[in-house]
Amino acid sequence: MNGFERIQKALNGEWPDKRPVMLHNFMMASKEAGYSMKEFRENPEMAADAFIQSIEKYDLDGILIDIDTTLLAGSIGVSVDYPEHEPARIPSGLLKSWNQLDELVEFDLSKNERVQKWLETCRLVKKYFGNEKFIRGNCDQAPFSIASMVRGTENWMLDLMVPGEEVEKLLHYCTTVSIQFIELMATTGVDMVSNGDSPAGPELISPEMFRQFALPYEKKLVEVAHAQNLPYVNHICGNTDLILEDMLETGTDGLELDYKTDIHKIFKVLGHKKLFIGNIDPSGVLAMGSKQLVKQKTQQLLDAYRESPRLVINAGCAIPPNTPSENIREMINTTRDF
Q1: For residue 17, how many other CB atoms are within 10 A of its CB?
Q2: Each residue's pLDDT tens digit, 121-169
Q3: Dist. CA 10–CA 310, nearest whole Å
Q4: Helix (H) or strand (E) segment spanning residue 277
Q5: How far, in Å, are 37, 40, 77, 96, 122 from residue 45 at the CA level?
Q6: Strand pairing of 192-196 and 134-141?
Q7: CA-CA distance, 229 to 247, in Å (whole number)?
Q8: Exposed (0-12), middle (13-18) or buried (19+): which is 203, by Cβ within 10 Å?
Q9: CB 4 within 8 A of CB 61
């Protein structure tokens, strides 16, 4: 059974021959391949080569193709910094006042150069592996996250306290951005699409706010992915215990969750219903922990999911670039030997 088949089995709720591993490791992959983050985000051939090298080095079953978390916000005019040796980042929001809301105009995302480089990276990796490995094309941020970047996190949190029609208008606009990227990603041949929506988690907003301002728009993304005949996964950082059942109401095929979310609650809510991807601590365990700690935490996760095939081992979020390769191998070997 190859990597693609293993993850497809887990997705369908069937037992694979071994537990599959799919890494979220774009920063580590770039560093191990010898590319700067600038080269990685600007050259799709280099980015694809970094992912291919990583998949072959660790014999992964699948990979999450990600470049950074600023693509969609930057495409609609939010200022983005592009450090040479770090991922792109957003220093401040675009709309300092709601009076600027009407300045956001309709656009064709396919004409964006960074978007095309991201898509080409996915095409190259998928073409290289065919149906041997499972390729997950991440589609950057979900609407709530994009809106927080457009307004700036502080302004956005204040907006939600006394929401006016502007909040809904911005969320609808950001949804059109996310939808365009999913539809473009579907043309690359990837096997799954996903988004991140971390500002929508309980560490920043209440479960009630999640249900009002994030869930309906995440649901639209799932519907678009399914219309393209692609499974969909959503990722939220932090402790999501309070919204696990709400997250399933989007119709998503799976969730990728952080190590802060209790694994036993995850199994109770998702275990026999939806795919779970995660959730080893990328920093405290994989990057800075001992091999013994990596093995212990991986075994705890495998033990918790002993009764369900719907598990793909991964870190709970992006793996830091300085992560020791022996820790990645320990996580994988522990999974293979379980």
Answers
A1: 10
A2: 999 999 999 999 999 999 999 999 999 999 999 999 999 999 999 999 9
A3: 5
A4: strand 275-280
A5: 13, 8, 26, 37, 10
A6: parallel
A7: 20
A8: middle
A9: yes
What 3-state class would DSSP assign to 306?
coil
CATH number, domain at 201? 3.20.20.210
- The reported pLDDT for the residue numbered 106 is 85
| 159 alpha-carbon distance from chain centroid | 26
Report pTM: 0.96
* Range(s) of the domain holding residue 273: 3-337
Specify the length of the chain in residues: 338
Q: Which residues pair with 254 in a beta bridge?
A: 233, 275
Please state, in angstroms and rounded to a whole number, the distance separating the CA atoms of residues 18 and 6: 7
Closest listed residue to residue 223, CA positions, set 214, 215, 232: 232
**Number of domains the chain is built from:** 1
HSE-CB for 67 with a 13 A CA cutoff: 28
Q: Once rounded to an integer, what is the mean pLDDT over residues 314-325?
A: 97
Residue 293 has pLDDT above 90, yes or no: yes
Percent helix, strand and coil across the chain, each rounded to 5?
55, 10, 35
CA angle 20, 23, 25 (to 5 degrees): 170
Per DSSP, the residues of 309-335 read: S-EEEEESSPPPTT--HHHHHHHHHHH
